[in-house]
Design a protein that fits this description.
348 residues, Nucleotidyltransferase, domain 5, 5-stranded mixed β-sheet, 5 strands
Length: 348
């Protein structure tokens, strides 16, 4: 292929290194290879594009130089839903079904119907999926919410707890104050299900055990570092919680004071509770598990490890609980991602 000498090869290679867009970078490389004497077929094999595209790029360069290789504006077809109408559709989607919809959650056909009836837009199911994903929506498993949860009180609590943590920090000026969250989960032969890949339209089966042996997994995580502390017990009461507090206290490095946030369960508030000197306790708002990021950890463990399984006896349960806890909770970056608690980030 003949290439006009608009630029020297070295200069063209230098400019190509600064290209960030893949499409334009490919055009530069095609011209560079052509200057080096490669045929259109060889350039095609090197870059993974068509012969016709290579010939077109070289022809454009010959005619207009580097400017001819720049990305041209893509006007495309106007989106069928945009501007205020798109925002209104997003709000409708996030608000969930109304009593008039008569359903508990939206599926593709429901959104297709809403788009037609309320927005005058006809879309295929695939186009609807593309629209949702393009604007950051995905089908997610919701976090359980108590019927008595009060979002206004939760917002107030998030402001108050920050002040409490600052007050504890001021009371311990010579110590590093870390923010920890703690919770307990029951894990046993009452199995759970998780999502699986299957052919569309099928109803896959999943193993769900319905026996009664179980144990308790107690876990505390540090909101700032992603560190974790855990205890596995066949029972759960004030004595076990005190045992975990003692263990947790011993694990804290010298010069560290922990602020531990947990729910108002009886074994967290009873008179038998013994808080170590290097641990301060703050009770979370009632009916508000969403304020405790350890709840996210339980969801992660069940959806990734503890579902679709059968456990023969307590020993198998314990082995699984210990192995999984170590595999997940000893990775601070992973714990920090799963158990992110934005409302205490400034204090962590």
């Amino acid at each position: 292929m003949h290439v006009h000498g608009h630029l020297l090869l070295d200069e063209l290679q230098r400019l190509a290194k600064a290209i960030t867009g893949k499409r334009v970078w490919l055009r530069y490389q095609a011209v560079i290879l052509a200057i080096q004497g490669r045929s259109a077929t060889e350039v095609t094999q090197a870059l993974g594009c068509s012969v016709r595209a290579v010939q077109n790029w070289v022809a454009r360069y010959n005619q207009g130089g580097l400017q001819a290789l720049a990305e041209r504006p893509h006007t495309g077809r106007r989106p069928r839903l945009s501007g205020p109408e798109l925002l209104r559709f997003q709000e409708r989607l996030e608000a969930g079904p109304t009593p008039e919809d008569g359903i508990c959650t939206f599926y593709g056909r429901d959104l297709q119907r809403i788009l037609v009836l309320e927005f005058g837009v006809l879309m295929s199911l695939q186009a609807g999926d593309v629209l949702l994903h393009r604007h950051g929506f995905s089908s997610l498993m919701p976090r359980p919410q108590h019927k008595d949860a009060d979002e206004e009180l939760q917002a107030i609590f998030q402001e108050v707890v920050v002040d409490q943590i600052h007050a504890i920090r001021e009371a311990h000026p010579d110590e590093e104050v870390q923010v920890w969250f703690e919770d307990e989960a029951r894990f046993g032969q009452q199995g759970t299900l998780a999502r699986v890949w299957a052919r569309r339209g099928s109803r896959p089966c999943g193993m769900r055990q319905t026996q009664y042996t179980s144990l308790y997994v107690l876990t505390a995580i540090c909101a700032g570092t992603g560190a974790a502390s855990g205890l596995i017990s066949p029972t759960l009461n004030a004595a076990v919680v005190n045992l975990f507090l003692e263990q947790f206290s011993r694990e804290l490095p010298a010069g560290v004071h922990a602020v531990r946030l947990w729910d108002g369960a009886g074994y967290h508030t009873g008179r038998d509770l013994k808080a170590p000197g290097n641990v301060s306790l703050i009770q979370l708002l009632p009916y508000s598990p969403e304020l405790n990021p350890v709840e996210n950890l339980w969801h992660y463990l069940r959806s990734h490890y503890w579902s679709l399984r059968v456990y023969r006896d307590y020993e198998e349960l314990e082995d699984s609980a210990v192995g999984v806890w170590r595999a997940v909770c000893l990775k601070p970056e992973l714990v920090g991602s799963i158990c992110n608690a934005p409302y205490v980030n400034d204090c962590a």
